[in-house]
Design brief:
alpha/beta, 8-stranded parallel barrel, two-stranded parallel sheet, 9 helices
Length: 279
C-alpha cells in the first residue's frame, strides 16, 4: 500500500538476550525500558516494541513487568507513542504465557505475530506452532490489537495468508521483515525487494537488518517505500565499535527520512496508516 511520504519509525528497545556487557545503554528494568521508550518517542519514534527482562537480564514474558512498563510509559501524559509488545520474549515460556499480557492488559495497541518456526542458529528452534499462531491471532483480533506479522523467511508469507483465509487474522496486514537473523533470510536488498513485492497490495510493511546490515536495509526500505525499525534489539552499534543508544538510532533514522524527502510519521498518523484506533 502506498503510504505517501509518511514513514513510521519503530524502536525495538532491548530484545531478549543481549547483555549490558556488550552495550551499557541496553535498558533492562521496566523503569529503564519505559524511559528509553519515552526518549525514543521524543526523537521521532511512532511505535515502541517492548521486550521484558528478568532479574538475570534474560527475556521474560512476565505480565507484571509488561504492566509496570506500560504504566510508567503512559504516566508521561504528553506521550502518545504506539505500544507494541512482543509475544516471543522467552523461549522457556508456554504458549499460554506468551499470550497472557495481550489477553489481559490495556494500552497494548500492537503485538508481534511471528509467522512460523525455524532454526535460530546456533541456539535452537524458534517455535511458533500453527496452533499457537491460530490462538494468538484470535486473541489479537478479538481485542483489537494490530498484529505485527514478523517475516523471517519467504515461506512465512504463505503462513500469514493461510490464517487470513481461516479468519484468524484480518486484512490489511502489517508485515515486519526481519532480515539477517542466522537461520532466516539473509539481509540483502534483493531479498527485501522480493518480500516487498510479494505481499498484498493493501498491506503496509516495515523492515530491519540485523547488526552491520542495519543501514543498508534501512536505506533500501526508504527507497522502496516502506517503514523502518531501529533499536538495540537489532543493532547495538552506531558505527563500528561505537555503542549506540536507542535515541541515537531513532534520530539517525529520522534524519535519513528527511534526506529522502519524506517525513517522519507522528503516532497519530501511524495509527491512521496501520488501522489502529486513535488514543
Amino acid at each position: 500500500m502506498n503510504t505517501g511520504n509518511d514513514v513510521i519509525i519503530s524502536a525495538a528497545l532491548t530484545g531478549a538476550v543481549t547483555p549490558k556487557d556488550i552495550n551499557e545503554f541496553i535498558p533492562l528494568s521496566p523503569e529503564e525500558i519505559a524511559e528509553s521508550a519515552y526518549r525514543c518517542w521524543q526523537a521521532g519514534a511512532a511505535v515502541v516494541h517492548l521486550h521484558m527482562r528478568d532479574e538475570q537480564g534474560l527475556g521474560t514474558m512476565s505480565c507484571e513487568k509488561f504492566a509496570r512498563t506500560i504504566r510508567l510509559l503512559r504516566e508521561h501524559r504528553d506521550c502518545d507513542v504506539i505500544i507494541n509488545c512482543t509475544t516471543s520474549g522467552d523461549h522457556r515460556a508456554s504458549d499460554k504465557q506468551r499470550q497472557e499480557h495481550v489477553s489481559s492488559l490495556d494500552h497494548i495497541e500492537m503485538a508481534s505475530w511471528d509467522a512460523g518456526s525455524f532454526n535460530w542458529m546456533p541456539g535452537g528452534v524458534f517455535i511458533n506452532s500453527p496452533q499457537f499462531l491460530g490462538s494468538l491471532g484470535e486473541v489479537l483480533t478479538e481485542r483489537g490489537i494490530k498484529p505485527e506479522v514478523e517475516i523471517f523467511d519467504v515461506g512465512m508469507l504463505g503462513i500469514a495468508e493461510f490464517f487470513v483465509e481461516q479468519g484468524k487474522l484480518r486484512r490489511p496486514l502489517h508485515y515486519q521483515f526481519c532480515l539477517g537473523v542466522p537461520g532466516g533470510m539473509p539481509a540483502t536488498v534483493e531479498n527485501l525487494l522480493y518480500l516487498a513485492t510479494h505481499i498484498p497490495a493493501d498491506a503496509t510493511w516495515s523492515a530491519f537488518g540485523v547488526g552491520k546490515h542495519h543501514l543498508p536495509i534501512l536505506f533500501a526500505t526508504l527507497a522502496l517505500g516502506g517503514h523502518v525499525r531501529v533499536g538495540l534489539e537489532d543493532n547495538v552499534y552506531f558505527s563500528k565499535g561505537v555503542p549506540a543508544t536507542n535515541q541515537q538510532l531513532v534520530k539517525r533514522a529520522a534524519e535519513a527520512i528527511a534526506l529522502c524527502g519524506k517525513q517522519v510519521a507522528t503516532p497519530g498518523r501511524a495509527r491512521q496508516l496501520l488501522g489502529i484506533q486513535p488514543l
